[in-house]
DNA sequence: CCACTTTAATAACGATTGCTATGGAAAAGA
DNA sequence: TCTTTTCCATAGCAATCGTTATTAAAGTGG
């Protein structure tokens, strides 16, 4: 009862579709319409792959979504590296927010944030999907916290900095921008929100 | 083909359920699980009313949701009055955010914001439900903008205040707090986010 | 060319979706 | 009591849901 295409297979009919390309289409569809509110037939239409092939290649709908979620979230290490590279924690978070503002209003992608859609997704059966999205957010939060702590230790930020509050604010603003983007807000509006949310950051010590 | 119970009816079997109470239960169910991801059978279970009675009393699922949405949002005039009563626009918005933080983490109600769930709801068929939620947000935004403009005119806020950015920020923080609440954040965390988002507000002139 | 392996396509599965037709029960007015 | 009006409950509608069994097709290794 082997269902997945074994990586080291030597024979058999080859896949007629690009697995990675199909996953990308699935991600965009989930991004547009959410997890539960995207049907398998929506996915077959978008991916150009029939249902049995989707099940053979990805397992089931939930696994396909979780794989799409990982693809959307990307490698946390990349975010961590980018934030370490920024001159200050403040710059790092500002960049993160501005990138989100641009991502949520991109022309080639759906509006808003896939993680935000997943969080709002409703029924009890989708609890583990919500948890997966929450987990991604927790990872991002931890990276922000860590970057702020570096700046407190190195000097630019005062010891009394409310680290967790700033991280939670950044997270909330990000997810809030997703809602505004879905409402039709343009890129400039979101960038203004991102900048306005940074005004309250503590001033550098020196 | 009269379906709704006419307000001025003189005879006939009386309703066996309290319409207002049933609507309240429906609102809580939608609040918990979103629009599309709440089924009619979820509603019948929560409301204690059979499907045909729901349809007779409320029309269809969409109309029931929209009525629940209006009940959730309340009278915009109340918000407007509350904000006019606050000594400054800053206090008014701070109160709004703190009230949201408390609402989203209430014990007797689902976590998060019903409007946020509605915005994220997915399929194209639910576009008008999304629009209805967006409309409520636009109303709130307009009230915030108006209150800030009053303070600019009366003096407490400088002429150069970025009115729309502050209003959009408040909206984004509100909807973002909803996501954090859904992730399990506690009331104190949300209140910290609310306060942190206000730190950047311009200082009073005098 | 023949086995063997794997994917593709068709068709359908049972379950659930939103919604409603039908028939009888419950109240009020005559 | 009888008629009229309205609502409740059962049962079921067509459609879609996520998923899969079945069979044909397309490759590789011998």
Automatic annotation (TrEMBL), chains A, B:
<feature type="DNA-binding region" description="H-T-H motif">
    <location>
        <begin position="39"/>
        <end position="58"/>
    </location>
</feature>
<dbReference type="Pfam" id="PF16925">
    <property type="entry name" value="TetR_C_13"/>
</dbReference>
<dbReference type="GO" id="GO:0003677">
    <property type="term" value="F:DNA binding"/>
</dbReference>
<keyword id="KW-0238">DNA-binding</keyword>
<dbReference type="InterPro" id="IPR001647">
    <property type="entry name" value="HTH_TetR"/>
</dbReference>
<dbReference type="InterPro" id="IPR036271">
    <property type="entry name" value="Tet_transcr_reg_TetR-rel_C_sf"/>
</dbReference>
<dbReference type="InterPro" id="IPR009057">
    <property type="entry name" value="Homeodomain-like_sf"/>
</dbReference>
<dbReference type="InterPro" id="IPR011075">
    <property type="entry name" value="TetR_C"/>
</dbReference>
<feature type="domain" description="HTH tetR-type">
    <location>
        <begin position="16"/>
        <end position="76"/>
    </location>
</feature>
<protein>
    <submittedName>
        <fullName>DNA-binding transcriptional regulator, AcrR family</fullName>
    </submittedName>
</protein>
<dbReference type="Pfam" id="PF00440">
    <property type="entry name" value="TetR_N"/>
</dbReference>
<keyword id="KW-0804">Transcription</keyword>
<keyword id="KW-0805">Transcription regulation</keyword>
<dbReference type="InterPro" id="IPR023772">
    <property type="entry name" value="DNA-bd_HTH_TetR-type_CS"/>
</dbReference>
């Amino acid at each position: 009862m082997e269902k997945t295409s074994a990586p080291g297979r030597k024979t058999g009919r080859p896949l007629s579709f690009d697995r990675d390309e199909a996953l990308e289409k699935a991600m965009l569809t989930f991004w547009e319409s959410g997890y539960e509110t995207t049907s398998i037939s929506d996915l077959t239409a978008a991916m150009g792959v029939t249902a049995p092939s989707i099940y053979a290649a990805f397992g089931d709908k939930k696994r396909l979504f979780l794989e799409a979620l990982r693809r959307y979230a990307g490698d946390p290490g990349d975010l961590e590296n980018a934030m370490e590279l920024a001159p200050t924690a403040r710059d790092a978070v500002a960049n993160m927010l501005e990138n989100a503002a641009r991502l949520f209003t991109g022309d080639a992608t759906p509006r808003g944030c896939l993680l935000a859609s997943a969080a709002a997704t409703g029924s009890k059966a989708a609890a583990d999907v919500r948890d997966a999205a929450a987990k991604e957010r927790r990872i991002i939060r931890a990276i922000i916290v860590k970057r702020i702590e570096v700046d407190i230790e190195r000097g630019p930020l005062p010891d009394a900095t409310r680290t967790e509050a700033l991280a939670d604010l950044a997270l909330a603003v990000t997810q809030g921008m997703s809602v505004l983007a879905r409402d039709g807000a343009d890129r400039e509006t979101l960038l203004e929100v991102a900048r306005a949310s940074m005004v309250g950051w503590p001033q550098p010590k020196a």
